[in-house]
Design brief:
The longest helix is centred in the first third of the chain and has 30 residues. The protein is an all-alpha fold. The protein contains 8 helices and no strands. The protein is 85% helix and 0% strand.
Length: 167
């Protein structure tokens, strides 16, 4: 299965996907309300938060790819507005519900989320800088400053990696 087939499948199953993503955070909240407990609640919240992270990452990947290929005008013409607004809603509501029910340190997916955010943010900033740097850049910015900025981005990514994979 290619990414094109995946996104075509998402568009084909638009209505059931919209209903599932709109109701999933509230179903999770209802399950946590009905079955409160220190063992079950982190698992249910972690599964919901993981699914919302996955939808948010797919959304972000689609936006980055579509902007690179067609620009914002292509997204405005081609994309479905409900499918574009739903992943941030699902992720935001899931994170809000998780924070209301338990501290985020007790939810396993929250640790993964924080590490992934640090790692991807640092790598994204590093690759963006490396893509923008040309030889003329060094005539405006001193070499130690540019190396310091690059090393700080890589340090940020390394901290995310350590947070993601350390026990």
């Amino acid at each position: 299965m290619t990414l094109e087939e995946l996104f075509a499948g998402i568009l084909a199953w638009r209505v059931p996907l919209l209903l599932i993503m709109l109701s999933a955070p509230w179903v999770t909240y209802f399950i946590c309300y009905v079955i409160p407990g220190q063992r079950e609640e982190p698992t249910v919240l972690s599964i919901n938060l993981s699914l919302s992270m996955l939808s948010f990452l797919l959304w972000l990947g689609y936006l980055l790819y579509a902007v690179d290929v067609k620009g914002w005008q292509g997204i405005v013409v081609q994309a479905d507005i409900l499918l574009l607004l739903l992943p941030p809603y699902y992720f935001g509501i899931s994170l809000w519900i998780s924070r209301r029910r338990l501290p985020l340190e007790q939810i396993p997916a929250a640790r993964f989320l924080k590490g992934l955010a640090f790692l991807s943010g640092g790598l994204f900033a590093t690759f963006w800088l490396l893509d923008r740097i040309r030889i003329i850049f060094f005539s405006y910015v001193p070499l130690p400053v540019s190396i310091g900025v690059l090393l700080s981005c890589l340090t940020f990514a390394y901290l995310g990696y350590r947070y993601l994979f350390s026990k």
